[in-house]
Amino acid sequence: MISKEENILFAAEKLFSEKGFEKTSTREISRAANVNISMISYYFGSKEKLLEKLFEMRMVESQSYIQEIIANEKLNVWEKISLIVDRYTKRVRQMKVFYNILQTEQLTNKNERIITFLKNSKLGYLKVYDELCREGFEKKIFKKLPNIALLHATLNGMMFYAMNGLPMYKEYFNVSKDNSDFDDHYFEELNLHIKQVLKNLLGYEEN
Amino acid sequence: MISKEENILFAAEKLFSEKGFEKTSTREISRAANVNISMISYYFGSKEKLLEKLFEMRMVESQSYIQEIIANEKLNVWEKISLIVDRYTKRVRQMKVFYNILQTEQLTNKNERIITFLKNSKLGYLKVYDELCREGFEKKIFKKLPNIALLHATLNGMMFYAMNGLPMYKEYFNVSKDNSDFDDHYFEELNLHIKQVLKNLLGYEEN
Amino acid sequence: MISKEENILFAAEKLFSEKGFEKTSTREISRAANVNISMISYYFGSKEKLLEKLFEMRMVESQSYIQEIIANEKLNVWEKISLIVDRYTKRVRQMKVFYNILQTEQLTNKNERIITFLKNSKLGYLKVYDELCREGFEKKIFKKLPNIALLHATLNGMMFYAMNGLPMYKEYFNVSKDNSDFDDHYFEELNLHIKQVLKNLLGYEEN
Amino acid sequence: MISKEENILFAAEKLFSEKGFEKTSTREISRAANVNISMISYYFGSKEKLLEKLFEMRMVESQSYIQEIIANEKLNVWEKISLIVDRYTKRVRQMKVFYNILQTEQLTNKNERIITFLKNSKLGYLKVYDELCREGFEKKIFKKLPNIALLHATLNGMMFYAMNGLPMYKEYFNVSKDNSDFDDHYFEELNLHIKQVLKNLLGYEEN
DNA sequence: CATGAATGAGGGTTCATTCAT
DNA sequence: GATGAATGAACCCTCATTCAT
User: Fold this and answer.
1) End-to-end Cα separation, chain A, in angstroms
2) What is the structure's pLDDT at B64?
3) Please, are residues A78 and A204 in contact by the beta-carbon 8 Å criterion?
4) pTM confidence score
5) Integer distance in angstroms from CA B44 to C1' E16?
């Protein structure tokens, strides 16, 4: 049983992703969620706080798995990075709708809470990558110690641009929009591609 | 002497970049451009057509240099790619304001003309990269023939994410917001970084 | 032990006085009374009926003392008038919060029951003053028989305007807002002032 | 020719007087003024600023005549006071609609500009009365020097309460609502009554 | 007897655009 | 060609009240 509150949240997520936050009206959300328009204010306070709630929910979800990975002592640094990429790729694909919103909002949104969510999330990832890279370099697992900002930008940039560009690439390759086998293959290839680029950046060679 | 029309165009570009298209009102644009509100409809037809005009103007500008490079017979394929990256990096930095809009609009905009501009632009680049890669591979200058979609996504993703993330990276490195020396160095490093990643993807080794 | 119903009534009275009936929301009342919003409709039927109840309560209270005074055979007419003024002055000061509401509502309220409350109350006072003035005139205690409407308007007008204007007068006299000694003295003086004006209007001279 | 702006202002004044500021909707005002609803924001910025404008307009009007009177060297102090009362009575009757609003708003309104308008106006009157009373007392025209606050409260209280109470008094005297002869006589009597009360307060006797 | 989630109407305001001048 | 007053639709939100529990 899905609650009205969640109904609103998910309906809003979809619409924000498709049309952007500003272009989505509370009326549309209420219609899509099949609830009265006043429920948005009732549950969330305002349209903007609904967006905040959405960010809070989705970003808390994402924060959990990374801690789990870096705490796992059975994995070496490359395995950790590799696993993070696996999870991240998977997650971005699953949560495409939300990451669409995220990308838009981080470019124009001036909401303080959302800015803080995003910044803290990114700074957290930077720190993790920083530590893993240093550790790998000190243990001579990695031969290079890359600029962590550029490594982060490369990883995330590839991920998001690849996701966003997929429909256009399908068109370039003359693949039907509905061909989901292509998608599966594409994301698999993307995952390997990202890891290959990272290996090169880190100077890591699999035995 | 700058015309009223251009005044509006540039004022709108700045505001769209800062606040997003939807959140920018025609009143704000007219105030910033120091013209009457009705001039926007008068010159451009509507707010949306103003955005179209902006895209048209900026994207036509970008299309010109690439043809020039690939037509230059004095350059080998890697030099061409290298030059494209140089120009692109420079351009994205210079036109940061516009590329901010571009990134937002390509995620949510449903305007047909703008979608077409963007798609054609990207398909054009894809074709160029495709041809250069094939040529380099055939001429054994490159050892690998990478997935062109992933190469494109990597190149563009790195570029945009690195640009957007700069303020956050400065914070991570405890660098003052106003430190433009850092910026200069950052973009220089970014340029080299992009080329290094491309070299690896293409299996290109400098003599 | 104060009941929830009374809690609401007194919280509403305070808020109506401070902000006016219209600007006070049921949410605010419920918050101030520490009860659920629906209790207002539950106990009183509606926000408007809550106001009616408030008027009913306060005006019934005020009606009682006047009958007591005019029935007292030990007092002569002037003593009766003097006592009414004493009680009225005291009551208006004590019930300042309610009389604030009363003044506002009699100017704009269209609620029939409230209009009737107010009208009956005033007509009752008019009748009392009328009878006392006539009796005093016939018994030659008063030398004049003033227009009873103007006498009523003068008495009430002085009272309410003096009450409302107090903060401003304090400012004029450079007296601190918190100086309650000034207030005590002010209301004492007001009481004497009202009686003096009445004496003049009635042509009454103390032995 | 009456402008749209004035149309709105006067329509709003009437409605505010009848129903109170809060209970009057912008839609009603626009309907009454026969203009589009958005014109209120267009001309005045907001409903509240419309009220401010109304106060500004009416109170500036009232400030002018008093200066004229006190500057007139041909009049002695009593004649000045008498003339102020004449004008004030006349004005309150003419501007009944506005003074209704004024009375309501000074009890509940929290708008700073309006509070300031009202306070300054009253402090101005207090000062004028203060000076005239002192002058009259020093010149032995008046035998008494009354508490200026109480004098002010008495004058204004009588005026407003008499105006507000008129319909009720007519009912008490069994006079038809539509009998305007009664009104004329009533206000004439009120004017004399006020002056008589003031004479008593000031200890002034006409030769 | 009491609750609080849910309602629908209406609130004030802002929007992009039009049109008479 | 250029203006700015004026428009009506749509915006988000808050309101008093209801009703299932």
Assistant:
1) 50
2) 77
3) yes
4) 0.91
5) 13
pLDDT at D64: 78
Q: A126: which 2 tokens? A: 């930077």
Please say if the pLDDT value at position D40 is more than 90: yes
| Residue A36 CB lies within 7 Å of the nucleic strand F | no
- The mean per-residue pLDDT over the stretch B181-190 comes to 95
In the predicted structure, residue C195 carries a pLDDT above the cut 80: yes
Mean pLDDT of chain C: 92
Of D148, D156, D171, the CB nearest to C161: D156
CA distances from C13 to B54, C39, C96, D110 (A): 59, 16, 10, 18
B155: closest CA among B106, B86, B206? B86
Q: From CA B48, how far away is CA A107, in angstroms rounded?
A: 20
A201 Cβ under 8 Å from any chain B Cβ: yes
Burial of A174 (0-12, 13-18, 19+ CB in 10 A): exposed
**pLDDT of the residue at A182:** 95
Distance to chain A for B98, nearest Cα, Å? 12
pLDDT digits (tens, 9 = 90+) for D147-184: 999 999 999 999 999 999 999 999 999 999 999 999 99
| Cβ of A27 near strand F (distance < 7 A) | yes
Q: Which tops the pLDDT comparison, C67 or A165? A: A165
Query: What is the spatial distance between Cα D50 and Cα D113, in angstroms, rounded to a whole number?
Result: 12
Phi, psi of D71 (to 5 degrees): -85, -15
- In the predicted model, what is the mean pLDDT of residues B1-20? 89
> Between A23, A119, A150, which is nearest B190 by CB?
A150
State the best of B13, B169, B192 to mutate against chain A, taking most chain A CBs within 10 Å.
B169
> Residues B9, B12, B14, B17: is their CA dihedral positive or negative?
negative
Burial class (CB in 10 A: 0-12, 13-18, 19+), B71: exposed
* Start-to-end Cα distance in chain C: 50
Task: Tell me whether B193 touches chain A (CB under 8 Å).
Answer: yes
